[in-house]
Amino acid sequence: MGTQYKQYETYPLYLILSTITCALLTAVLAFLMYILEPGLLQLHPFASIISSVVISILIAIIWILCLSLIVASTGIIRLHPIVLRLANQFIYGLFPLTLAIGKVRGVTKDQLRQSMIDLINHLVMLDMYTVDPERILLLTPHCLQESSCVHKVTHDVYNCKQCGRCQVGNLLQVAKDYGCQFIVVTGGTLARMKVKEARPKAIVAIACERDLASGMADVFPIPVIGVLNERPNGPCCNTTVDSERVRAVVEQLIGRNSNDRGKDLSLIHI
Questions:
Q1: Most buried of 60, 93, 98, 114, CB within 10 angstroms?
Q2: Distance between CA 19 and CA 27 in Å, rounded?
Q3: CB environment 10-42: b (16+ within 10 A), e (fewer)
């Protein structure tokens, strides 16, 4: 796809900080190997060798994954789906350490988590194909709905009256505009079941970074583009999302850009 990935422009931040994290992990493992070696040699000659081999393998795995991400992010190579799945888990696994390093450099948690999801999305979109709108699934958590709303949308999203009190109505409009499937779920188990029923070619998922990272692995090999929700009232309560960001992702997946939307609007005005 020849689409510009402007909404994923923050991914270099996480890539840089995660590389620094890998370097620090390497230093810690090397130091561990150094201080353990004398004691292991006294215990048994092979114990020191085994320890060195295990730590060396761990260091090699860390840098193979890290360098694969760096090279893949440039578009020079394409990651095999299985490698991409491992890379996604690796990216998320580094988050706590990367966050600690980022705070030293003045990076906030929100900035870092957005950068992490941008990196995963960037890697997915580099190898993405055009998808028919009806094969795209918009998947959102029920916490996106206003908690006091009496119109429950988890069984049928078209129960939404699009009153504007929450973002469910705006997302429903996106689904209507492009003919996408749209499902609101109460948890991971229901989400996996609904994905099996819908059989999409691509998923646009809205959730927190933890649920996005685990959800991407759960529905493998279906490609997932994640959009982070915002939590002004804390987790799992009246969350919100930028519906225009979701719209932009859908347009990318169907091979359309914002200029096309502008042309359509101008034709309507004519």
A1: 98
A2: 13
A3: bbebbbbbbbebbeebbeebeeebeebeeebee
Residue 177 sits in the same domain as residue 256:
yes
**Which residues are within 8 A (CB) of 233 and not within 5 positions of it... i.e. 6 or more apart?**
239
Q: Of the residues 74, 104, 125, which one is the last residue of a structural domain? A: 125
Full domain range(s) for residue 201 = 129-269
Residue among 187, 179, 78, 58 nearest 129 (CA) = 78
pLDDT at 59: 94
Question: Hey, what amino acid is at 49?
Answer: I
> Based on the domain organization, do 233 and 139 belong to the same domain?
yes
Residue 23: its pLDDT value, please?
A: 95
Residue 102 shares a structural domain with residue 134: no
Structure tokens that stand for 148 in this block: 């006091």
pTM for the structure as a whole: 0.69
Residues 12-43 pLDDT 10s: 999 999 999 999 999 999 999 888 888 888 88
pLDDT of residue 71: 84
Position 257 in a domain: yes
Q: What is the largest CA-CA distance in the chain?
A: 86
Tokens at 106, concatenated = 């003045």
Poorest-pLDDT segment among 21-30, 123-132, 197-206:
123-132
